[in-house]
Design brief:
The protein is globular and about 65 Å long. By secondary structure, it is α+β, with helices and mostly antiparallel strands. The chain is built from twelve helices and ten strands. It folds into two domains: 161 residues, no CATH class; 116 residues, no CATH class. It has a four-stranded antiparallel sheet with strand order 1-2-7-4, sandwiched between helices. A two-stranded parallel ribbon has the order 3-10. The protein has a two-stranded antiparallel sheet with strand order 5-6. β8 and β9 form a beta hairpin. Monomer. This is Epoxyqueuosine reductase.
Amino acid sequence: MSNSSQLQKDKYAGIIKAHAKTLGFDFCGIAKAEFLEEEAPKLEAWLNSNYHGQMAYMANHFDKRLDPTKLVEGAKTVVSLVYNYYPDQKLSETKEDFKIAKYAYGKDYHFVIKDKLKSFLQHLKEEIGDIHGRAFVDSAPIMERQWAQKSGLGWLGKNSLLLNRQMGSFFFLAELVLDIDVSPDTPMMKDYCGTCTKCIDACPTDAIVQPGVVDGSKCISYFTIELKENIPSEMKGKFENWIFGCDICQDVCPWNSFSQPHQESQFNPHPDMKEMRKKDWIEITEETFKKVFAKSAVKRTGYNGFLRNIKFNL
């Protein structure tokens, strides 16, 4: 490779990382866009075990999940980005009160981060020239945790989430897939979980079937968000008052002792949410639901689905 070509790749990496910081992303990593050979048999085994439950979309676009060049023509680079959502103040999480996953406290992250990614791509076109790419935030068949690991941002913990030594796991992942060559970062090869099994031991539904493998169809998040029918009766009494999502495996993770509050005002909860206690959740009307969760990811369950989750926890 010529020296000028390497310098250009390094320059592009510098531009990307500097702008990621400007937009408020906590970490930015770069990897070469290529087929994820090691992941193919793992994904196939996971799907064959039916760990995706009724999430039929997980079985779609198998090739695209493993190969970003099928998502963006001529793709050469995958940029992975980390955006913190750890709250300054947790909503009430006493044993009596109902609980909502921290990522859903404020405005739906898809919108907040997608806006940043759009402006990111525009900035790169202005700085670099005629480049093409796509932005993703949990919105396409892309194995974001694996790409983040490949770009050096962390390792996959026993709960299958990406863990970062500086900030744990309370963050969103997003990607830019670009058709330019950029100097890649070194993949994270080390697993810093060691012999710790706190996440496995704490999961009340035994969803973590082996280190790094989660049976999605047993996860509280799956039951309270993805499942559209009645929750299986054998799960009764196991939800520990989670009515949307679940943070148990993250809350017990020692690496999350390094979590710092986010700086994104759009992730702050609706003022009424802070006042809600068990009685208020039980008596929530459709009008209140629509008001409190107007811009929240919680809207995904719909009012009736939300009531189902509450009743199941009673």
